[in-house]
Recover the amino acids of this structure.
């Protein structure tokens, strides 16, 4: 049994999707980041950086419990645990890890900042909006070029790199992006969205989602002070 500590945001959803795609038994525990629950002492013991998601695998290596934070590390662990969605051949493996790191180091942080300045900042900051909207557009251009070369980010097979990136692309319109400008991304997004495991993963904890405009000032501070990663 895997204990999942998460919230229905892109970084949480990528792990939700992986657990569903891999057919692993898990229990989802909501960590309401709009209410500051990520700062509670119990969660800190699992996630030292006070970020969602985090997991505890009760049957980890050697049968011992293992806790992990950082969504990229979790995806790699789950792929290796199940032997799925991470190619065995070295070239395919590192190509997948390359695009996973692209999401972790580029898409996630930049899209997250774009979403913050456009939808969550307590006051409008034009410089921040312009800077991160342009960067989100640039990253989508990189993805579009890659997906013009291959069916999926890692190559011709669907992998954890796609699981990691899909939830962020899903919010592209909310980041001021004209998604029609990225036809290869749209083709890929639609194909990934049709997967039953993705549908189930995106639905995990969804009923708890709060719209940005519904957040009070304290909730906005919680989000600003404790981003997902």
């Amino acid at each position: 049994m895997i204990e999942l500590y998460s919230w229905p945001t892109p970084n949480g959803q990528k792990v939700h999707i992986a657990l569903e795609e891999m057919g692993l038994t898990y229990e989802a525990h909501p960590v309401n980041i709009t209410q500051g629950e990520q700062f509670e002492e119990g969660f800190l013991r699992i996630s030292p950086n006070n970020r969602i998601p985090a997991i505890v695998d009760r049957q980890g290596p050697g049968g011992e419990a293992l806790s992990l934070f950082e969504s990229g590390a979790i995806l790699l662990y789950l792929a290796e645990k199940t032997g799925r969605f991470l190619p065995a051949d070295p070239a395919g493996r590192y190509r997948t890890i390359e695009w996973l790191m692209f999401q972790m180091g580029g898409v996630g942080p930049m899209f997250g900042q774009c979403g913050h300045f456009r939808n969550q900042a307590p006051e409008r900051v034009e410089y921040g909006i312009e800077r991160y909207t342009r960067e989100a557009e640039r990253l989508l251009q990189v993805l579009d070029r890659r997906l013009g070369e291959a069916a999926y980010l890692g190559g011709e097979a669907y992998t954890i790199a796609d699981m990691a990136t899909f939830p962020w692309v899903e919010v592209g319109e909310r980041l001021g992006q004209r998604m029609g400008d990225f036809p290869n991304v749209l083709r890929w997004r639609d194909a990934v969205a049709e997967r039953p495991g993705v549908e189930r993963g995106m639905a995990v904890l969804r009923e708890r989602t709060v719209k940005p405009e519904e957040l009070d000032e304290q909730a906005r501070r919680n989000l600003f002070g404790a981003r997902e990663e």
Notes: The domain at 2-84+204-225 is CATH 3.40.30.10 (Glutaredoxin). The CA atoms of residues 146 and 153 lie 7 Å apart.
